[in-house]
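ok, trying the design again with the full structure, not the truncated one.
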């Protein structure tokens, strides 16, 4: 009787887990994306975790490691709080440190290990994994494609509705008005999600069913529509790399050749044909144009006498005169005014902006350069050596400007110690992937390593990845698939 009840509870827990997984991308849409829905998802993961501990006896034998991880995370949070209490800056509010915000961020960052642990002991089947992969692939790709065709999608680079769909890309249109992310909150995050889906759908295509080519096609089109570097170029390179990897196993490892591989050829060719007229290409041309203009301006300035500086130096040295001088010399094409008036106001630190403008080659200035420069300046003013070890807090960085490179941002926010503790799962999974590949050179192990490396690489290049609950859930699911030996398809056809 007791066993029957336990089996029923396990079934209900698995059902909850599957529903939670399948519906996860929905909550990244602008309609639902909020701190409240994030808290709800954290709560659900904790419920799944606690339920797993109670229902699966074998899960308790490794519980001590999770407890140690929680204690280390909590200890860091407390130490970080006292460290940040004495923070000094030139700004009156010291960029509004918030312990609640830090707690919220730390909670999100401990979720990957928590969820991976839960999924591992639930032992999802191959069918379960395929259901989730298929549902994510269909929902995300079709949402982007449909909203693009009907021109009701949000732009990937603004919150406005696009004006041009895929059938109008040959009109030399602006990328801001044509790159589309559907109704998802972040284009970068959606790009990475689709990249992961592309990888595993290719694996299912090769090892299971050629019908997965439909999903690969839909994903490819939606990635082109997104117009980001990761989706447009990264997707094409990844798909090509996957084909070459498979051919390696066919030629070197003597695996049976899947004749349906030829279905990848028209998709790759179509991708290559569309890419030159895609929003990504338009964006790339625009960025190169600005870079060229900046380089030309820098060259022209180097030929001039710099009399303007000496002339401005005679202005009365009050705060207003410094601000006036900054406004007179700033290139607003490279440094939009919200950077020096809102994010890091020249009202409180005019010297920073004067020094940056006068001593920086314009050709090297971009948004990410400015973001990191502002954070480095805040750390410099605080002048506390412990900032390297403990960071200056995520809340402060967000109140200045979000760094659009996740691992870099985590380093400045949490320091070396906090980053090692809170981001350890990504290094652990990477090491496990490498060990698995060394032990046994199989196609699935190569697939897993490619997925893990690309995930970490994209988090280095872009933002809104590591602290996104949707990406946390997706990464946890993929990681569990990587380490769950019971669900792998045969490595031979």
């Amino acid at each position: 009787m007791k066993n029957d009840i336990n089996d029923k509870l396990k079934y209900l827990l698995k059902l909850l887990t599957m529903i939670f997984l399948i519906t996860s991308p929905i909550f990244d849409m602008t309609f639902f994306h909020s701190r409240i829905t994030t808290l709800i998802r954290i709560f659900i993961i904790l419920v799944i975790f606690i339920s797993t501990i109670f229902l699966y006896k074998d899960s308790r034998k490794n519980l001590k490691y999770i407890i140690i991880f929680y204690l280390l995370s909590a200890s860091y949070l407390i130490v970080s709080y006292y460290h940040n209490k004495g923070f000094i800056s030139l700004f009156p509010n010291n960029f509004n440190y918030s312990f609640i915000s830090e707690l919220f961020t730390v909670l999100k960052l401990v979720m990957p290990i928590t969820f991976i642990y839960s999924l591992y002991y639930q032992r999802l089947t191959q069918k379960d994994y395929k259901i989730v992969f298929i549902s994510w692939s269909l929902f995300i790709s079709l949402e982007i494609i449909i909203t693009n065709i009907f021109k009701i999608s949000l732009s990937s680079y603004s919150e406005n509705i696009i004006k041009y769909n895929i059938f109008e890309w040959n009109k030399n249109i602006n990328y801001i008005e044509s790159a589309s992310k559907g109704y998802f909150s972040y284009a970068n995050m959606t790009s990475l999600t689709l990249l992961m889906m592309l990888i595993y759908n290719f694996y299912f295509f090769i090892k299971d069913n050629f019908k997965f080519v439909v999903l690969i096609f839909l994903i490819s089109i939606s990635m082109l529509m997104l117009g980001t570097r990761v989706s447009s170029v990264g997707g094409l390179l990844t798909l090509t790399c996957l084909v070459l990897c498979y051919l390696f196993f066919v030629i070197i490892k003597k695996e049976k050749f899947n004749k349906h591989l030829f279905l990848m050829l028209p998709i790759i060719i179509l991708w290559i044909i569309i890419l030159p007229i895609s929003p990504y290409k338009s964006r790339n041309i625009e960025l190169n144009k600005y870079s060229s203009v900046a380089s030309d301006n820098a060259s022209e300035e180097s030929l001039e006498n710099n009399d303007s500086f000496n002339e401005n130096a005679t202005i009365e040295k009050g705060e207003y005169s410094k601000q006036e001088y900054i406004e007179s010399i700033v290139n607003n094409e490279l440094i939009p005014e919200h950077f020096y008036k809102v994010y890091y106001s020249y009202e409180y630190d005019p010297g920073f902006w004067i020094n940056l403008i006068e001593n920086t080659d314009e050709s090297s200035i971009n948004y990410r350069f400015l973001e990191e420069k502002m954070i480095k300046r805040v750390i410099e003013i605080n002048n506390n050596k412990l900032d390297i070890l403990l960071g200056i807090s995520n809340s402060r960085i967000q109140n200045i400007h979000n760094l659009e490179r996740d691992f870099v941002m985590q380093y400045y926010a949490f320091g070396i110690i906090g980053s090692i503790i809170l981001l350890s799962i990504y290094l652990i999974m990477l090491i496990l992937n490498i060990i698995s590949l060394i032990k046994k050179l199989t196609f699935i192990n190569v697939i897993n390593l490619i997925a893990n490396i690309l995930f970490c690489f994209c988090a280095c290049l872009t933002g809104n990845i590591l602290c996104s609950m949707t990406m946390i859930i997706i990464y946890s699911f993929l990681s569990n698939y990587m380490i769950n030996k019971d669900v792998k398809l045969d490595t031979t056809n």
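Keeping the full-length input from now on. The mean pLDDT is 88.
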